[in-house]
Amino acid sequence: MSAVLANQSALPAAAPTLGREELLRYGRHLLLPEVAIDGQRRLKAARVLIVGAGGLGSPAALYLAAAGVGTIGLVDFDVVELTNLQRQLLHGTRDVGRSKLESARDRLRDTNPNVKLELHPTRLTAANALTIIGQYDVVLDGTDNFATRYLVNDACVLLGRPNVYGSIFRFDGQASVFASADGPCYRCLYPEPPPPGLVPSCAEGGVLGVLPGLVGTIQATEAIKLILGIGTPLTGRLLLVNALDAQFRAVKVRRDPGCPACGTRELRDLIDYDQFCSTSGGIGAGLDAVPQIEPRDLAIRLSTGEAIQLLDVREPHEWEIGHIDGARLVPLHRLDAAIPTIDRDRPIAVYCKAGTRSALAVRDLLDAGFRQVWSVTGGIVRWAREVDSRVPEY
Description:
single chain; alpha/beta; Rossmann fold; Oxidized Rhodanese, domain 1; 2 domains; eight-stranded mixed sheet; five-stranded parallel sheet; 16 helices
């Protein structure tokens, strides 16, 4: 590990000096005895990797760049979409359609041209995680899926890099520091990924736009504390953020001696968890096996007069945003009660927003004895893009 974190008692001999412009730029830091010039030089020498340039990565990257972290690495393979702009402040309206890394690069250079940016335009996988993460002192996990969270955690444990974790959903957030020398790792808290479809993504369940700002800023704060060796990090504590009720509380998390990653150390190699975790569109153990129908194929069959029942398993407030003509609203949690009212002699196409809830509904209908049932691939989002542009995307 870099001497920046390996020995907090002495500034590394190779730590860069600060120029006149930097002394002025970081003046408010230099007034803090806990930071001062030596601390600012330590920040300049540090290398921090942010996995994900989205909701959590945006505030974290902006504040780390503003704070003067010398090298910031960004891993992302996505492009900016209009739906991102409600919370992903690295990007603006003019960036829609651009690579998130290109957009982030321009925004961060404007924030602080002294910071070196290293862009990794790729999906983090078992094949590249050790190589990428091994180049940095601290890792910020800004991902939005379980597959990558487990991958980041396992790589950090194997490499001895602290993992500054954050997650968000609806009005709730979490933050902690995992995989430090004397603390637990993510697996100590969540030993195994949840069953596919059990936990909806932010795309399915929504998220308050300012929430990632709160949690991402906490992640940036923890990274800076680790680099400077000051304060009490969130090691061994999970910070819970309830934005709806304005409540913050911390719960203790202890290292599990039986943890295969940081306990028994039996985990020696990385694997890709996509086969175990449902990351999007209903794809995951069991859900990808349910019968599917493409939006265009469904539209063609409906246009020929085929008597297909359309079931919308979203929530009423989603229905009000937009729905497919002729569909019947049956929220997923009410499906069991509605089964006796569904015609068993007619084929059924089930849709939700992106495909996860509809796949769960199809599995339940098949278990109930229905035979001609499909999940609409990609949900109403793909229907709006490929069939009927009058249906709003959200």
